[in-house]
């Protein structure tokens, strides 16, 4: 034994092997520190180092990080063979490593990508030696996924943080059957909270600085800011109705300023049109140096949590038949005693084929139904025909929902073609957004209701449009008249259309719908759809 030599050799120079005791440029996954084998993610909010080793994964550690974090820029180490170099295109300056390649100076005929088989080319970033990889920390794909998720909320987290109590806790899985509504709520409420937290984090992380603004004034005399919003693949997609905050930090001639507005349109030139709520103090003589933030609202998630709570504590929120169906209980099939129409089609719609007629007939005879059909099979026409016959049965108004505004608009247009009186209820943040069914929207009908009794409301509305605000007494009177008019129009409608979460709008607080249709139901989460459940009294239909 005395002849054995355990002295470290020079091959290990540059490595730190203690748990968590890595140099700054060590791979954040495995700890490899060889400068020739590591690269830095060059995104300003990241700046972490990763190596070109695969370890126990299908791709190199740097590629794993770039893909999961949706980053695209890297920089070589200053002590690497090529020195501290940001990889970018020689001609255009593009830094997306997934698009970059090289052409040999000798041939100048064919090129090759810098990334091949999910690794950087070895002449650019070396692969750690077999001995280096054996001495490195072994990390699994599952651990990589978890640490990447943890970095979204804690950029300085380490792999040791995954071992802390509570970090790795998984929520209770969704079940096929539930004992009662309390168990149902206890499963879905934490999932809604997790989704809300993630959505908030994603939106608040999308702030952009150094934005150039082009100022304009809309037809309603409100100030509109036009700008190009830089975006990457990992960012949220802007849509009309989104709420944004425009900020200016100030300079020698201008004080700091900020205002909230909502996106009214996206131009063909990829400009965002942001209509500001307040026009006072807007620095219209300044065009550069602005910042844009997403404004996160918890309304949708609060309504879903409220629906779960109501379902758990209020036994009258849905019928017993639907209650047991939602919980996955075995329920004996019931039939609704309704006089079936002689003709299952509806005026203003194309004639139904045999399968569509069968679907309409079954829906009208059952308390709850699910219709499935591939794209292009006429589900929207079938849904409109179902709503038409529901409305003609004399059981009150019909509520029509869908998870997306586009689907609601399409269905509202089809239903209106049958001659029924349709009201399209939009979120207040979307009232300034143009819509193909503008004439059906509640806010449009309120503005254009031409009766002598509503002349005072129209005068106050015109005064508010011209001045931008009303006195406190006029504002109070205006809101009262507007609420009364909205309720009057909604109560006179045959069908009310809104998004699933929009069914929780305070303007529908005292409405009770005995018949509900939810379009594209499988494109929404169960809690999202469940907000409409509280409106179900007797008959419901879900289409996907």
Automatic annotation (TrEMBL):
Annotated ranges, domain Upf1: 19-154
Organism this protein belongs to: Forsythia ovata
Domain Helicase ATP-binding: residue ranges: 360-492
Alphabetically ordered keywords of this record: ATP-binding, Cytoplasm, Helicase, Hydrolase, Metal-binding, Nucleotide-binding, Zinc, Zinc-finger
Entries under CDD domains matching the protein: 1B_UPF1-like, DEXXQc_UPF1, ZBD_UPF1-like
PANTHER family from the UniProt entry: DNA2/NAM7 HELICASE FAMILY, REGULATOR OF NONSENSE TRANSCRIPTS 1
Superkingdom, natural source: Eukaryota
Family named by the database record: Belongs to the DNA2/NAM7 helicase family.
Cellular localization per UniProt: Cytoplasm
Record GO biological process: regulation of gene expression
PROSITE patterns assigned: HELICASE_ATP_BIND_1, UPF1_CH_RICH
GO annotation, cellular component aspect: cytoplasm
InterPro entries in UniProt: DNA2/NAM7-like (IPR045055), DNA2/NAM7_AAA_11 (IPR041677), Helicase_ATP-bd (IPR014001), P-loop_NTPase (IPR027417), UPF1_1B_dom (IPR040812), UPF1_CH/ZBD (IPR018999)
Protein name according to UniProt: Regulator of nonsense transcripts 1-like protein
Catalyses which reaction(s): ATP + H2O = ADP + phosphate + H(+)
GO MF term set: ATP binding; DNA helicase activity; hydrolase activity; zinc ion binding
Gene3D superfamilies documented for this protein: 2.40.30.230, 6.10.140.1240, P-loop containing nucleotide triphosphate hydrolases (3.40.50.300)
A Pfam family it matches: AAA_11
